[in-house]
Specification:
single chain; about 170 residues; mainly beta; Elongation Factor Tu (Ef-tu), domain 3; SH3 type barrels; 2 domains; six-stranded mixed β-sheet; 2 helices
């Protein structure tokens, strides 16, 4: 079974067993259709949970799982990731990508020089930042058209236009 990260449990909310979730989507509304989710530190060790309720607040997503009825139970799962099966992933608009599609991609310049590999994605209000590792250094690449020229998730390859100051040795 292939699982994909859709969020992370970042805290408790109230005393009735709700978790506060950092959603890995620009549209948390998509999570409202889920009936089950997988919780774990990684895709290799998860438990299946049925969703009782999802509340979308102004700045957060709150989820209540069946059988989790108090704050103490929630505290045990804070920090865990939330995963769904591929059939539960939304269809993305052209030019948008899942985080799991970006992580692991090789980054090359428009001229064909290898720069490194994406090992993390930071979600920011204006745009994402892709963390590219080259040896021991990490460079942050703004995920905007000025820098990112092509993304080929099938071949795990991203072509970027390097400008002065973006990548410095």
């Amino acid at each position: 079974m292939d699982l994909f990260a859709v969020g992370k449990i970042v805290g408790c909310f109230g005393v009735k067993g709700y978790v506060r979730v950092e959603a890995y989507t620009e549209s948390p509304q998509r999570l409202k259709t889920l009936q089950k989710i997988f919780i774990g530190a990684s895709t290799t060790n998860v438990i299946t949970c049925l969703i009782q309720d999802i509340v979308l607040n102004k700045n957060s997503v709150l989820i209540k799982f069946d059988g989790v009825n108090d704050r103490t139970s929630v505290e045990r799962i804070v920090g865990q990731m939330l995963f769904v099966e591929q059939c539960d992933l939304p269809i993305l608009n052209e030019g948008t990508y899942f985080i799991h599609d970006i992580i692991g991609c090789e980054v090359i310049t428009s001229e064909g020089f290898h720069l490194g590999r994406i090992d993390d994605v930071y979600k920011l209000p204006a745009h994402d930042l892709w963390a590219m590792r080259n040896r021991a250094k990490v460079y942050l690449i703004p995920a905007v058209k000025d820098f990112v020229k092509t993304v080929d998730v099938k071949h795990k390859r991203i072509v970027v236009q390097v400008i002065e100051g973006l990548i410095e040795e």
